[in-house]
Design goal:
With 480 residues, the protein is of the alpha+beta class. It folds into 2 domains: 148 residues, 3-Layer(aba) Sandwich (Cytidine Deaminase, domain 2), CATH 3.40.140; 310 residues, Nucleoside Triphosphate Pyrophosphohydrolase. 30% of the residues lie in helices and 21% in strands. The strands form 4 sheets. Strands 6, 7, 8, 13, 16, 17 and 18 form a 7-stranded mixed beta sheet that branches. A 5-stranded mixed beta sheet has the order 2-1-3-4-5, sandwiched between helices. Strands 9, 10, 11 and 12 form a 4-stranded mixed beta sheet that branches. A hairpin with a 2-residue loop joins strand 1 and strand 2. Helix 2 packs across helix 4 and helix 15 runs antiparallel to helix 16. It is elongated. The structure holds zinc ion. Zinc ion binds next to helix 2. The site of zinc ion (ZN) has 7 residues, from helix 2.
Length: 480
Amino acid sequence: MIVEADHKHMQKAIDEAWKSADRNASSRDPRVGAVIVKGYREDAAHRSEENEGDHAEFSLICKKLRSSELLKHAVLYTTLEPCTARSHDKKPCVDWVIDSGIRRVVIGMLDPTPQICGRGYWRLLDAGVEVDFFPYELLDQLKDMNQEFVDSHRKPLLFNTAFAGLIDKNKNADISQFRGAFGFLSNLELLRTPNRREGWPLGDVLIENDEASAFNVPLELSRAYKDFFDTNYQSERLYDDGEKFMLARNPIAWEEASTLHLKTKPTKYSVHLFYYKEISQKQNLVPSLIKQLVSGDLTCQFAHSMCMHMVIATSDNKLLLTQRSPKPGYQEPGLWSCSIEEQLHRHDIEVGPENAMLAWGRRALREELSLDESAYTNQNLRLLSVFAEADRLNIALATFAELNIDSRALDLHLDNRLGEIEFGDWEFIDIEPSLLLREVFKPKRSYHHSARYRLLLAHLKRFGQPKPRELRRFGAAAGS
Ligand SMILES: [Zn+2]
């Protein structure tokens, strides 16, 4: 527990930390101050005080005090969590602290370095050291002095790229960004997937819907929208102008945290269709809308209907290909895809931000394939990518479902439900590296415009990044 007497020592540690500013080789090194109190005696040190890079706690314990008398049962105030790992031969500060017999440590903030974050705290607790934290009121000072250090480790998993080439429909196979995130054809991945592309379990995705700020057409486009609405009223059934949900800003995930945040807001079907059919054809508007999405304040300034594309893998290692119904009223009839499609519905949102994504995915399986939970486990439903279909001004989610039934069972199941399922035809292909790459780069079927991107994701998930040799076989260039 923090008591009144702690305050002056905590402030002293912060003041001390500021002194480490001048000698820092790089602003990405943290400023750290440490204070040790024993009885009426108070000693302080800061990072790089004597030698460049020396940690504050190390300096204080090993260079300044060195006396077991002054350390045993003392209290250490440090602005940053003591480190748990140092370059090969050095003993980390947390061990110096424990070995010196310090009885209590008051920490300013956890070290944002993923290799340390929280480990120092737990090591101290395990060793029987009492641990407290600086109060919230001091956090601003701590963050201010180390903003760049914090930012450099707490990077959002955000993909930021030179997108100009990617929105050129004629530009082929731009997979130059295969390290981490990438774009392919006109599909631009908006964030990097953690854990070697295992993706997020749908239960780790948060969908926060902002009811208060529905997306409307901006004033300068309102005339064009009205014309579009009147012209397409009958043919596009705009009288039935239902609610859609769109991603309102770029997805956010932090490298050290598993949760992915999606912020959504409502819009109208007719507004989405206006952007999809009209604005996406105006090539002077598209680049700036995409640029706003991936840079600047990361907001999405175009209406879309955030479709989930779920790739289906069966237990015998086959992938389901589906063919869009040739019936009128379906977009892009007759094209093949490697997934089922479902849009976010109000029912999904109503189960709450933590459960919405899983509800959405489960509903996709139920409504598109009439599969219930006996056919899969929730952990095997994963979100692999949030991506912009840049040339269509659409944002879509690629998810991957590994079923626990085999392709024969699924085939029979679908045969028995012909009246219920939305797509016209289906096939299974082996999930096998060269076969997937062939479908990506030398497709045998006429695919939906982002299907080959999702086949590539399936390849990445199962087999990792294709080797340059494999890419050359299909005439695709490995990126620079
Ligand atoms: Zn240290």
